[in-house]
Amino acid sequence: MTTSLARPVVQRLVAPVLLVLATLVGLLAPVQAAGAVRPPSVLETEFLQQLNAERSARGLAPLVLDPQLVDGSRNWANAMASSGRLVHSNDGRAEIIAYGYRTGQITLTWMQSAGHRNLIVDPNLVYAGFGVACDSSGRMWAAVQYRRVDTSLGTLTRSDPSPAVTAGDSGSDCKDQSGQPPVRRLYLAFFLRDSDSSGLNYWVQQYRGGRSLADIADFFAGSDEFRTRYGSLSDRDFVRQVYLNVLGRPPDSNGYGYWTGRLRSGTTRGQMMVGFSESPEFAVQSGII
């Protein structure tokens, strides 16, 4: 049996639309906030910053990302964006969801709704996950899931609406996330790992500012990390190893001949890596689309 701690709230404004839910089931143990987490998107980062600013204005500790909650939030945001339906995940976590067009707009509307605000400024809800997905119309779907720190204490039943420090016209929209998938794929192809958030945000800004993927790739190719992995290999061995590392398979004869020929004719190793990171095979394999 689940026990509701906060009555679900539905507010219909011009945008965003949002819901709130908190239940007892599944909140029995906080988990470690450490671990490998895919770097947050531009939009997820802004939601974390905005909600932490609201907590800081009340003298509360900042939220801490929990890998399990991050995965759950992202999965649910994607599910809502795919279905076009604003519904709760019903997995027993404290959760707020919304759709809208700008991060600040959604956060401000959450703060203006007592049920949502009670969760955001609850001192016992410090582990959280953020997920944001954009649909084909450019609409942003957001989910924030929490774990309680001390289950002997209930979530807030009331909170003061002031101060609210997030402006409704602040933050980014779905267009501001453009450019992230190709840069993330490039990181993964080059270094066999996802990027750190600061590096990702820097290179996404560079890419959106007009710097080509080939130029970024040539910079990556000069890094110690890349040269340590591939620097001493001949071109033929380099092509073979990239196939194994990036695509997880040996090169087919046509691909092997094509890329060794390109390197002989002057294509840089960085430029070759773009061919792999932007290939449909790697996009599907990596799940970064």
Tags for this entry?
six-stranded mixed β-sheet, elongated, 6 strands, 289 residues, alpha+beta
Provide structural commentary.
The two termini are 39 Å apart. The chain is α+β, with helices and mostly antiparallel strands and 289 residues long. The protein is built from 12 helices and 6 strands. A 6-stranded mixed β-sheet has the order 1-2-4-6-5-3.
Count every helix, treating DSSP H or I runs of 4 or more residues as helices: 12
Range of strand content: 5-15%
The outline comes out as elongated
Largest sheet: 6 strands, mixed
SSE string, helices as H and strands as E: EEHEHEHHEEHHHHHHHH
The overall strand count is 6
Question: In short, what is this structure?
Answer:
This protein has 289 residues and is α+β, with helices and mostly antiparallel strands. It contains 12 helices and 6 strands.
Task: Describe the SSE topology.
Layout (H helix, E strand, L loop, with lengths): L3 E3 L10 E7 L18 H15 L7 E2 L1 H17 L10 E7 L2 H9 L2 H7 L4 E10 L5 E9 L31 H12 L5 H12 L4 H9 L2 H7 L4 H13 L5 H12 L4 H9 L2 H7 L3
Parallel strand pairs: 3-5
Antiparallel strand pairs: 1-2, 2-4, 4-6, 5-6
